[in-house]
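This is your field. Pick holes in the following sequence-structure pair:
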Amino acid sequence: MPKFAYTGRSAQGRVTGSLEAVSATAVADQLRSEGVTVLSVQAQEGGLVESLSLQQRLDALLKPAIQPVDMLVFTRQLHTLLKSGVPILRALAGLTESATNERMKETLQAVRASLESGIELSRCFAQHPKVFDHFFVAMVRVGEMTGRLDEVFLRLFEHQEFELFMGQQVKSALRYPLFVMAAMVAAIAVINVMVIPAFAGVFKSLGAELPLATRILIATSEFTIRYGWLLVGLAGAGAFALKRWIETEPGRLAWDRFKLRIPVAGKIVLKAELARFSRSLALALRSGVPVEQALTVVAQTCENRHVSGKIEGMRASIERGESLLRAAIATGVFTPVVLQMIAVGEETGAVDELMQEVAQLYGNDVQYELKTLGQQIEPILIVFLGVLVLILAMGVFLPIWDLGRVSFKR
């Protein structure tokens, strides 16, 4: 008889253990009869699991990750099936069979098994946080409470579609500037390592006093040749240290606050967060979520921790009796357009509709900003490249000009 490991919650607290049963459903039934609320039930395979653990890990590493498109297709198909009256277990079974991504298929199998054991659908999704984020789980929980799961999955599909589109626009906008910057770095490296040393040998053989710009170029080239490996190592160590610092809570908060102050890009980041906030708040309010709970759910969708913390603070203000408008003004992150829409929405009782309009407004604005990002950055790159060429020209040609002038006088 197979063995199942379980976790649950009883009157005494959290309980874990293992039981032998015919199926996971039987385990859940037995635990419920003992007054235990089941959280998860998973099959154990004894020594077979241990002997194959290394192979399973290698197979897991080789399997392609779940892509946003996979989640988009899953959410849309699940909405269609539920709207057509297909039971959730049958819908998950069909989606599992049709899934092309192995990781997605395994995840859906685990969700279906947990659902069969008597766990709520939102908790089944919550057991896979790397696939289903907090916002997804929270909205599914709302759909369970209101009985409108099909509508919730449709709105989740629209939300995921917007997020996917935003990601694609960002990658498209940054492709050209990053390519230009990489080419400039490569050009600087070649100039320092190959070009300047050749001219330096010629200038030293002449024995003349070199201009300041030329001496700076030669000193920079010699430093790069001697300590280039050290510079690369320090750059790698600095990038690694920065990454680890950003992974910490204070580091992530400081980094996200800094991103909002970056010229050109900062305003795009803020508008994207406001579009995400407005769309998520409209989605939550339309689904019947109270505004206090909606703000908690919306805060989890924001990628910027600084903005997310401000939204969390709005909930505390509303719980103290303040209006949504006053709470939003106190954060200091919302633009006058958003504040005006919130004010009108509170007066008319149509906050969700106006937030949807704000989301569309800023979504279109961000789309335009991203399309023109390359044009906005291009002048900065041209100026930087021009300064670089000017310094190089002065360092190389000034000594030649001086020597030519001296020879002409003679």
